[in-house]
Amino acid sequence: MQALPRTGNLQSARTRTAPRSEVTATRWRRDAEWARAFVAACDNRPAVDASMTRRRFVGAAGAGLAASSSATQRERPNILWICTDQQRWDTIRSLGNEHIRTPNIDRLAAGGVAFENAYCQSPICTPSRAGFLTGMYPSAVHGCMNGNDEWDGAAPLVTRTLADSGYDCGLAGKFHLSAAQGRIEPRADDGYRVFHWSHHPHDDWPKGHAYIEWLRSMGKDYASIYKELGYIPSEFHQTTWCADRAIDFMCEERTGPWLFSLNCFDPHSPFDPPQEWLDHYPESDMPGPLFRESDLAAQERLKEVNFQRTARRPEEMNARSYQARYYAMIELIDHNVGRMLDALEESGQLDDTVVIFTSDHGETLGDHGLLLKGCRFYESLVHVPLVISWPGHFRKGLRSRALVELTDLAPTLLELAGLAVPESMQGKALTAILRGRSSPDRHREFVRSEYYRALAGVQSFGTMIRSERYKQVVYHGHGLGELFDLEEDPGEFENLWDDKRTAQVRHEHMVMNFDALAMASDLGAPRVARF
To answer: What is the separation, in whole angstroms, between the first and last Cα of the chain?
Structure first.
């Protein structure tokens, strides 16, 4: 396998979020002094920088515990973390979709654990990523909106904590913890040594866009290719480029463990796969979206709540064409998953590597008359794929029905690395299920997702609680909500919000939502005395 040329690090220095007030700065400096002594005592590393934030300290202190944990360096796995963009849960053949071809994700699922009820913490990119990179709800880490000025730094990123504990970390593709429109996204304190930034593949930045700079080094011009073909061929596609960067990184010589984040832009709109993959999906073979005529009235009721497209009948938007293109993009992703798994096997690292396959959120794709995303919480938007494999260590071929959240990934990675999980995390580690030490059917009583002014335009607020049977959604400030019985109505067509017979269910789920919100509150500086 011939590796494509590497692209250098985009920025040599990380940026740190400054304290918001002198009082806060003083508190953080005080905490950092204690942190220096604590971490140095744990593992005899150099004392940490006094400018460290209080929440950054939580990650550093956890890293310090690595030396005293039972996990040895040899037992700490490598981590290949594949996160696609806008991929809904029902897009994997071996997990039930007979219309798509995903042999390599199927291979991953056959060798590991597929979580069939995994939920993101927001149907929008930045808040979802803020959630799974910190193990906390977006609203708990000031990460609620796309287009935000900067990453607030309200909690340490799990990649920073792992880097502090000895992991060599790299990334290719999207990051999106702050705005990237009209500018190169500023670096957060992310822990990545290698950072090949490419928010999306289009040629929108004059410099600093690693994917476009690589294309130019190959004598190719993105705009010209796209204008001629209407797509980018597979060998020059951003998804392929991300996989090449991952393979280069994974095959570097090193003595310690590594983590690589592959964050390709697909299968995000504009739904423009290479023709060779689109040829596999004739529109006439597509199953079409979930839709009833009543959906138009349901969306009219929610017309004041932000969404990227207005509701239409599937034939009015040619939904089967979008579905075919979407599936083709996913098959290209799957092809590159196979290339990365082959590289791990050929380099002798497969048995030493945890592989995670997931997505930040889903895509309506015509369901309920909608296309793209916004302030809605249908299964197509918040229910995401999650497959985790580590040969010889995790259960093989298991399909878990447990309710899980993407916040659960950060504490899972910390536990696998032998690090302490901070009490501040809302995430709950999945290691007991993965290792076969607990039931694969029970993990959480409910999962939660939120939308707080996440997109530009109409400033909407919404929250979702999903228990084993019911899903309740509240569109705050509108007096509107939804309640779906997912056992009797998995397609989410019958809204029981105003049904008097479900009053008790609504009450119970409202309490769950308030409980989750309270437990996710930022309590400020750590307690140092009884009063």
So the answer is: 64
By the 8 A CB rule, do 254 and 260 touch?
Answer: no
Q: Which amino acid is at 275?
A: Q
Amino acid at 29: R
Q: Is residue 134 packed enough to be buried (19+ CB in 10 Å), middle (13-18) or exposed (0-12)?
A: buried
Distances (CA, A) of 362 to 96, 128, 326, 374, 487: 17, 11, 11, 11, 21
Q: Which two tokens stand for residue 318?
A: 């040619």
Residue 117: what are its φ and ψ, rounded to 5°? -130, 60
Radius of gyration of the chain (CA): 23
Cβ 474 vs Cβ 481: under 8 Å: yes
Per-residue pLDDT of 46-72, as tens digits, reads 333 434 444 444 444 444 444 334 344
In this predicted model, what pLDDT tens digit does every residue of 307-338 receive, in sequence order?
999 999 999 999 999 999 999 999 999 999 99
Write down the pLDDT at residue 75: 85
Residues contacting 255, CB < 8 A, separation 6+: none
Is residue 451 a contact partner of residue 462, using CB atoms and an 8 Å limit?
yes
Phi, psi of 242 (to 5 degrees): -60, -45
Query: What pLDDT, on the 0 to 100 scale, is given for residue 523?
Result: 83
Between the CA atoms of 96, 99, 101 and 107, what dihedral angle is there, to the nearest 10 degrees? 10
Q: Which two tokens stand for residue 321?
A: 């064409």
How many residues does this entry show for the chain? 531
Torsion of Cα atoms, 280 then 281 then 285 then 286, to 10°: 150
Q: 38: helix, coil or strand?
A: helix
User: With 0-12 CB in 10 A as exposed, 13-18 as middle and 19+ as buried, what is 398?
Assistant: middle
Residue 501's identity, in one-letter code, is R
Q: Which amino acid is at 190?
A: D
Percent of the chain at pLDDT exceeding 70: 86
CA 355 to chain CA mean position, Å = 14
Evaluate if pTM is beyond 0.70. Answer: yes
> In this structure, what token pair is assigned to residue 7?
């692209």
pLDDT at position 419 is 98
- Contact between 190 and 162 under an 8 Å Cβ cutoff? The reply is no
- Number of helices (H), then strands (E), belonging to the chain: the values are 16, 13
Residue 318: phi and psi, rounded to 5, are 55, 55
